[in-house]
Design goal:
- By secondary structure, the protein is of the alpha+beta class.
- It has 4 domains: 99 residues, no CATH class; 193 residues, C2 domain (Immunoglobulin-like), CATH 2.60.40.150; 116 residues, PH-domain like; 54 residues, no CATH class.
- Helices cover 36% and strands 24% of the residues.
- A 7-stranded antiparallel β-sheet has the order 15-14-13-12-18-17-16. Strands 2, 3, 4, 7, 8 and 10 form a 6-stranded antiparallel β-sheet that branches. Strands 1, 5, 6, 9 and 11 form a 5-stranded antiparallel β-sheet that branches.
- A hairpin with a 2-residue loop joins β12 and β13.
- Keywords: Coiled coil.
- This is Rhotekin-like isoform X4.
């Protein structure tokens, strides 16, 4: 069975997921003893079923868009999990097939692995790390007649993005009412991918949906409909019933029509690797989709997007090795050994202090040896009776050499293994080791269910005589503003002023009057 992980549009994704044998996939996960992946598949299948029921019951446009987005994300995750299961099953089959061919390959492999430290170092797997994505911005390319002269294209779009590394798939927030007045689309989301290999491929996909194609009642604000309802109440019962009946009928037909279910289309995508890691925001190219379905839903994209793709390899976030070392120093051409120093391998450097307490109080090290992908670690010829376990750390150019002595052969192998592992990590993560940043786990973007209210809602309300002035001005602006202004998205501005005290006053007739006796 062919598993497709592209998910170019919601129609193909839904059809493929529907045709897959879920029972077969679960049995495949059980045979591989990957219960965590099986749990994820079961969770996404339940999410799909619940989202479909919600999609059938929704009658508001925003709810329909959110449900359609959630369904697409769940389908994409299910396909990614199934593809990963198939890949692991294929790898397991190939491994078992190679074992049956005899022990000749095993003998040659063991002899090849013992040829020297260079081949041993090259066979080491590189460490994993964290990848953080933030500051996502997609510029738009409107025509001058649309954006500057404010006429022409009256389309409005809904847009969101998928971010994928392996089987880990995240989605940005949904941005709606994107029209010709917007110069770019900005997402304030931040994402962190855990346990990422240095050979990762970060896929960035942009999905769009054309909300309305023309100047219809559906593209006008809801306050226009409320204004007509209030107007119909003042022109008479007969005319009012007809107007209200026609509006309610049109609204119910619009929400009940299953053909108008939002279907997001993949309009652009990009693939980034370890070479694109940078601690600052950079611009990357977008590959625009050229098929007819994507073109009809496509925003006028500029062909680029901006994001901050930062990395934190695990070799730069933890101490790799620490212990007692002896350091050789050259003074006036004479080799002098400083004994019983405290060495720590971290942040791409081997730092040495006089004692461990100096490191704990953040004192400056007395000596620092940088370690990069060009560093060479070997057994030194400077060994003597007093220092039999000596390592030589140098660069391939051989300009500077450092000699370190360990307390025992076991300590020597431990330091050598840690240094060689760091060299492999430096070569795999490239510049990400030099531009590593601290990445913290992001909190889930879910509204808190805890209320911050400590008193009565009555005490926090501010009642004044001009409560409806703002609504009335907005309603009147529907008939006075141009159609383009009516389509302009109006931001919700939070009121930063403090609550006013209630202005309730007690009528004089209810005030108890005291009379002088």
């Amino acid at each position: 069975m062919r598993l497709w992980s592209g998910s170019k549009n919601m129609d193909n994704t839904t059809d493929i997921v529907e045709d897959l044998d879920i029972f077969y996939v679960r049995q495949l996960a059980i045979s591989l003893q990957d219960y965590e992946l099986q749990r994820k598949i079961d969770l996404e299948i339940k999410m799909r079923e619940g989202t479909r029921k919600l999609l059938a019951a929704c009658n508001r446009e925003l709810h329909l868009l959110e449900a359609a987005k959630a369904l697409l994300v769940s389908n994409t995750r299910v396909l990614a999990y199934m593809s990963e299961l198939q890949r692991r099953k294929t790898a397991q089959y190939v491994q078992e097939k190679n074992k049956k061919k005899g022990s000749s390959r095993g003998v040659s492999a063991s002899s090849g692995s013992s040829e020297g430290s260079g081949s041993e170092c090259g066979s080491r797997p590189a460490c994993k790390g964290k990848i953080a994505v933030s500051d996502i911005r997609i510029p738009l390319f409107w025509k001058d007649v649309d954006h500057i002269k404010n006429r022409g294209d009256h389309h409005r779009y809904a847009i969101f993005c998928l971010l994928k590394i392996g089987t880990e798939i995240n989605s940005t927030q949904l941005v709606t009412n994107v029209d010709r007045t917007a110069t770019d689309v900005t997402f304030e989301d931040s994402f962190v991918f855990e346990n990422v290999s240095p050979d990762f491929q970060f896929t960035f996909e942009v999905y769009s949906y054309n909300l309305h194609d023309d100047m219809t009642m559906a593209s006008t604000p809801q306050k226009l409909r409320r204004k007509i309802n209030s107007f119909s109440n003042s022109v008479g019962k007969t005319v009012g019933r007809k107007l209200q009946g026609s509006l309610s009928t049109g609204s119910s037909e619009e929400s009940a029509n299953p053909e108008e279910t939002p279907r997001f289309r993949l309009v652009a995508q990009a693939n980034l690797t370890v070479d694109d890691i940078n601690p600052v925001t950079k611009t990357h190219d977008l590959s625009l989709e050229t098929d007819d379905t994507a073109r009809s839903h496509c925003l006028p994209l500029f062909g680029n997007f901006c994001c901050r793709l930062a990395a934190q390899p695990s070799c730069m976030a933890q101490i790799l090795c620490q212990g007692i070392l002896h350091l050789q120093e050259n003074q006036a051409g004479l080799a002098n050994w400083r004994r019983n120093l405290w060495g720590v391998l971290r942040d791409g450097h081997l730092k040495v202090w006089d004692k461990a307490e100096d490191m704990s109080i953040n004192a400056d090290p007395i000596h620092t040896i940088p370690v990069s992908k060009d560093t060479v670690v070997s057994l030194s010829t400077e060994s003597s009776a007093t220092n039999p376990h000596v390592l030589e750390v140098s660069r391939q150019e051989g300009e500077e050499r450092h000699h370190l002595a360990a307390e025992s052969q076991g300590e020597l192998e431990r330091w050598r293994s840690s240094l060689e592992q760091l060299i492999v990590d430096q070569g795999a993560w490239l510049d990400a080791c030099h531009t590593s940043v601290d990445i913290l786990a992001t909190e889930p973007r879910r509204p808190s269910m805890d209320s911050d209210r400590t008193g009565s809602l009555y005490d926090e309300m501010s009642i004044s005589t001009d409560l409806t002035s703002q609504d009335e001005s907005d309603d009147e602006s529907v008939f006075t503003d141009s159609p383009a202004m009516n389509l302009r998205p109006r931001p919700l501005v939070a009121n930063t002023k403090t609550f006013k005290k209630p202005i309730f006053t007690i009528p004089k007739i209810l005030v108890r009057r005291e009379t002088n006796v």
